[in-house]
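ZP: hey, is the 6-diazenyl-5-OXO-L-norleucine complex queued? I don't see it on the tracker
AM: it wasn't, my bad. submitting now with these inputs:
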Amino acid sequence: MDYAGILEKIHVDLQPWLGKGRVADYIPELAKVPADSFGMAVVTTSGEVFRVGEADTRFSIQSISKLFTCTMAFRLLGDALWQRVGREPSGTAFNSLVQLEAEQGKPRNPFINAGALVVTDVLCRRFVKAETAVVEFLRRVTGEPSIDYDMRVAQSELAHGHRNRAMAHFMASFGNMEMPPEVVVDAYCRQCAISMSCVELAKAALYLSNGGVVPSTGERILDSSSAKRLSALMLTCGTYDAAGDFVYRVGLPAKSGVGGGIVAVLPGEMAVCVWSPGLDKNGNSLAGVMALEWLTTFTDQSIF
Ligand code: DON
């Protein structure tokens, strides 16, 4: 597959769209990123890396962290995790509170903020510093020891994180928080503030393309059945209330973040990450979704 040529073509075709959309500003530190930034990387299970644009520039991974924290919590609890978090698409915005009351504090899925807070609660219970455990996990699966979280982004979100605090306290009122809500929100904001590049994120997600095993080291992160299940959740819930439209256009399991990154996996073949900070109305990268749609169209590869 000529990934190099296809990435170049995508970069050229995308030019009119770069800078379109809205850069997230509800976390003030994120608003400082140039709107027309763009990078994309494909990493194959056989170890080849293809990159275009700013594929080595680190950005705030935000909700993409939910994929890795969910992996870690699933490793710890297995199916017991689903007693506290559901597995259905929410059909509501990623930071919505509306379903929580009707559904007694059990979030619809681990990729909306409420569900991710429960997942982080699981990690806070197990690790002295959950955010450090997440950073260490990411360093291990990528082989990049300099990965870390950006304190300014974490502080910026902590200072404005009223909705996440509300959700965590609300779930605590239903008995669905084991640790103090403030501890969980603090760890959650730090995990979201981890900075990584497209190449690093594609490498990090590669265990999902490879039956749960990191191809470069042979380390098993998940059994193949669990890798299937997490990828299925990405497909149905990874891009929020736009998951239906996303899978129609792209045809790959994916996880997005308001920093403008999207990671997607093609089982048995590769992981891809695209970054462009301008977001569409659902909070997904506008140019990023287009780039992935073109990638699966030009390569004629998707899960379908
Ligand atoms: O909790 C928040 O609002 C952010 N830390 C993460 C949100 C996010 O990335 C949702 N993605 N589209």
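AM: back. The domain at 3-62+196-299 is CATH 3.40.710.10 (Beta-lactamase).
ZP: great, adding it to the tracker
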